[in-house]
Amino acid sequence: MSANLVVTNLTQKFGGLTALNNVNMEVNFGEIVGVIGPNGAGKTTLFNVITGVYHATSGTVVLNGKQINGLKRYQITRLGFARTFQNIRLFKQMTVLDNVKMGMCCRSKCNIFDNILNTPRRRREDKAQEEKALGILERLNLLDYKYDSPASLPYGEQRRLEIARAMATDATILLLDEPAAGMNDQETAELLKTVSGLRDSGYTIILIEHDMKFVMNVCDRIYVLNHGELISTGTPDEVKNDPEVINAYLGKEEEK
Amino acid sequence: MKNNNCFKKAWNGIVEFIAMHQLPIMAVLIVLVIAFPFMTTNKYFLRIATLCLINIVLGLALNLVQGYMGQMSFATAAFWGIGAYAGSIGVMRLGMSSMAGMVFGMAVAGMFGMLIALPTLKLKGYYLSIVTMGFCEIIRIVEMNWKELTRGSLGIMNIPPVTIFGHKFKSGSETYIIALIILFIVTILVKNLVNSNFGLSLKAIRDDDSAAETMGINIVHVKRVNFVISALICGFVGAFYAQYVTFIHPSSFASGVSQEYIVMIIFGGLGSIPGTFLGCIALTVLPEMMRGLLQYRLLIYGALMVIMMNFMPSGLLGNLDLGLVKKKVLEKRRKKSIAQKTGGEAK
């Protein structure tokens, strides 16, 4: 299978601080890839560089043979990336349904005149969007909340709503930043089912997560970052037994 | 605390009632406002009513920028003034017809809107407010001093009244109806706009612009287009205003006037069309009723702002969406009926 997303020699510096140093990564179509590492390892920075929040100091991000770093954020999203945020960032004054519909705005074929004059084309599109949004909400088990404010949702539901909003952009690659953070065991188990279900329906998923049980169960491959450098990659089992990874998480064994 | 709950319940009840009976209530209101000029012959009342209508249009235009996009703009009066001056100069010097003058005023205001929007809407937060404040003042000074074009502090007099198909609309009740038609059209357009994908993008930008951009929205473009639309509306109604009052003066378009519109929509409700109506009508009629307190009006406005900001930061009807309230009520009823049915079967 051809490689979908290739990150080559990616370096991101903030002044004197090197947040990412020569990171190489490859994500294939239909995979779930985990990015783990201790706090401050550069995981979220990696996401931010891929989605265009920062422009990398050097190195390239290539999607299907097309270089995407340097493009604007909304352009990258339109190429098929969508992400969720570590600290939940839903649109709080809009309803749950509108939050999802909002994700579809970037695919809208209507111009400003269609919008102002509410033309038949606009009405057709609106109907299609509404149906699709309800479908996504149903799939993520959020249908009961559709007219509520996202701020009134329980924590796990808010995280799921972020995934729903990301799916609404018609993305093929979902970047989930700590989707299981703050969830209890039952919620995490549900999320596990959701995420693997997404993979089965054709999404490619890259996720950052601290919950090791979750990561080891759901991911096909794992990249381990520490201090901005890639220290290990491989299947969950390989990574678990890598002495470098154990060092990074638990510290070096003292020599006797 | 209990009292407060009672009040809230009653308020929700009223809102739900209105939401569920939107059509009949709208019909009654429309009949009332159309019948108004035939019920009274008092010129003063008609004039206040027409001003109300013009103010609501300006309030709607401002609410697009401030309520839905979330950036405070002081440019309402500037665009209004540009529309008024461009419209009357077009009619008086370039020999345009009355309608062409309005369209000309709209176009010129839109052009200035574009001029402001191109560099400033890349900025976030209050920078737009500062720029528009300065812009408003610049426009007023130009109107004041470019004597060849605007006659400076003498103002432009004897502007021909609104004329459509050769008919001069001179009487108060006729111009009232024209203003009503303008308001009706603008309201429908604004309603369409805020309920569309464009409106969703605007609200998303207001809530979290960085997340909105990550969701694939070209936020700078959306903000610019929205700002220009707001300027176009102000310009059109400005040209109409000039032909209605037949005399314009730079002081009508000072930055203090913009602040009055900001107070109106903050009072009525940011991001809400019924709120704009309420705020603009209340704050156009109230000062007229308190003529005796005219000197203290700004003081009262200030106090009102402070109170509103403290207790109801988004206005009386802030973010009220009657359509949504209706959907919620229907959903609740549907659930209830399903629960009753299944309950009945269980028995």
Automatic annotation (TrEMBL), chain A:
GO terms for molecular function: ATP binding; ATP hydrolysis activity; L-isoleucine transmembrane transporter activity; L-phenylalanine transmembrane transporter activity; L-valine transmembrane transporter activity. This is ABC transporter ATP-binding protein. It comes from the Bacteria. GO terms for cellular component: plasma membrane. InterPro entries: AAA+_ATPase, ABC_AA/LPS_Transport, ABC_transporter-like_ATP-bd, BCA_ABC_TP_C, P-loop_NTPase. Residues 5-252 form the ABC transporter domain. The keyword Cytoplasm does not apply. Keywords: ATP-binding, Nucleotide-binding, Transport. It holds the Pfam family ABC_tran. GO terms for biological process: D-alanine transmembrane transport; L-alanine transport; L-isoleucine import across plasma membrane; L-valine import across plasma membrane. It comes from Fusibacillus kribbianus.
UniProtKB/TrEMBL annotation, chain B:
GO terms for cellular component: plasma membrane. It is a multi-pass membrane protein. This is Branched-chain amino acid ABC transporter permease. GO terms for molecular function: branched-chain amino acid transmembrane transporter activity. InterPro entries: ABC_transp_permease (IPR001851), LivM-like (IPR043428). The keyword NADP does not apply. The chain crosses the membrane at residues 12-38, 44-65, 72-92, 98-118, 125-142, 175-194, 225-242, 262-286, 298-317. It comes from Fusibacillus kribbianus. It is found in: Cell membrane. Keywords: Cell membrane, Membrane, Transmembrane, Transmembrane helix.
